[in-house]
Recover the amino acids of this structure.
């Protein structure tokens, strides 16, 4: 399953690659990384049919994760539409409700529980 992780923190790549080393090696999961909402949209435009899931931070400079989610859900794109999980350090109900209203499939808080995330990802159908 191809996952696009969108987060402005540069160390997120290393963290995901360490935590999912076995799943990456086996081919069960493949990760790409974007460090802004704008970069994520460009990646999705170029690789629209590859991405099955987007894991996006909400609070980023420039385009927020919520704006990225809105655009992913409303702008015409070839199917299949990716699943979207939002991640934030601020687990407030307003952000959660806004993300779910915009079409998020799940809402996670930081620090991310990688064991629980791994279970969720591996339980998803890959296409």
């Amino acid at each position: 399953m191809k996952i696009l992780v969108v987060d402005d923190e540069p160390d997120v790549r290393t963290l995901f690659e360490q935590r999912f080393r076995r799943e990456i090696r086996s081919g069960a999961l493949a990760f790409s990384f974007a460090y802004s909402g704008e970069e994520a949209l460009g990646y999705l435009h170029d690789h629209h049919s590859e991405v099955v899931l987007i894991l996006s931070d909400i609070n980023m400079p420039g385009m927020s994760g919520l704006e990225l989610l809105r655009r992913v859900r409303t702008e015409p794109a070839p199917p299949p539409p990716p699943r979207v999980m939002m991640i934030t350090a601020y687990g407030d109900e307003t952000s959660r409700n806004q993300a779910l209203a915009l079409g998020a499939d799940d809402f996670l808080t930081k620090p991310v529980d990688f064991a629980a995330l791994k279970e969720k990802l591996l339980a998803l159908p890959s296409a």
Notes: Residues 5 and 55 are 5 Å apart (CA to CA).
